[in-house]
Design a protein that fits this description.
two-stranded antiparallel sheet; 5 strands; three-stranded antiparallel β-sheet; about 200 residues
């Protein structure tokens, strides 16, 4: 449901609406691509994740990364398994996925031509990664218990990311995520496929 609107103007070169989607406030914007990218924390294009260093703070850098990484997973052979696991877990938590899907469809279709139910499902899966898989120990434990191959794939992506993140603050965040995965594996009595070294950054 739309609750507010910021009309297009020649200075801002875009228009926005604020919408209530699944009980959360979501701003949707359309306009000049160049202007929108300047204001984004990050975006995904042709298999590459771009992060805006001028806009991405220490609090949301990791959130942007894991959200866009989920879209990148569409190009891997594991995405369908990831999607099924995400939906199963969110349903187990009592989330109204139908209501969330309908809200996304209603709002996104106003701005994105040809937006489909599959597109909405991808947004739901991204929400799972952002809110659970990289922040919540319980969800990581569940993944380790129920799908070892998928767990290893996600863990490998975390390790790959650690190789090129240069900010100490953000690397520490990713190391904390890595610790969650090591803890989950210890809990189910499973060893990692590769030797794991967890360092402390000062």
């Amino acid at each position: 449901k739309r609750i507010a609107e910021i009309p297009f103007d020649s200075t801002r070169k875009m228009m926005s609406t604020i919408n209530n989607v699944g009980g959360r406030h979501l701003m949707l914007t359309k306009g000049s691509l160049g202007e929108i990218i300047k204001k984004c924390n990050g975006y995904y294009k042709n298999g590459t994740i771009f992060l805006n260093k001028n806009k991405t703070s220490s609090d949301n850098y990791t959130t942007v990364f894991v959200h866009e990484l989920t879209h990148h997973m569409e190009n891997s052979g594991m995405y369908k398994a990831f999607e099924s696991h995400a939906i199963e877990y969110m349903r187990s938590k009592g989330m109204d996925l139908e209501g969330i899907n309908n809200g996304i469809m209603q709002d996104y279709s106003k701005f994105v031509d040809g937006f489909t139910t599959e597109d909405a499902k991808r947004e739901i899966v991204a929400k799972y990664a952002e809110e659970f898989l990289f922040k919540d120990q319980e969800s990581v434990n569940y993944l380790a218990r129920t799908d070892r191959n998928l767990f290893q794939k996600v863990y490998d992506w975390i390790k790959d990311t650690l190789r090129y993140v240069t900010s100490n603050a953000e690397k520490q965040k990713l190391l904390n995520i890595e610790r969650m995965y090591v803890k989950a594996l210890n809990g189910v009595g499973t060893e990692l496929s590769e030797e794991t070294t967890i360092e402390q950054i000062t």
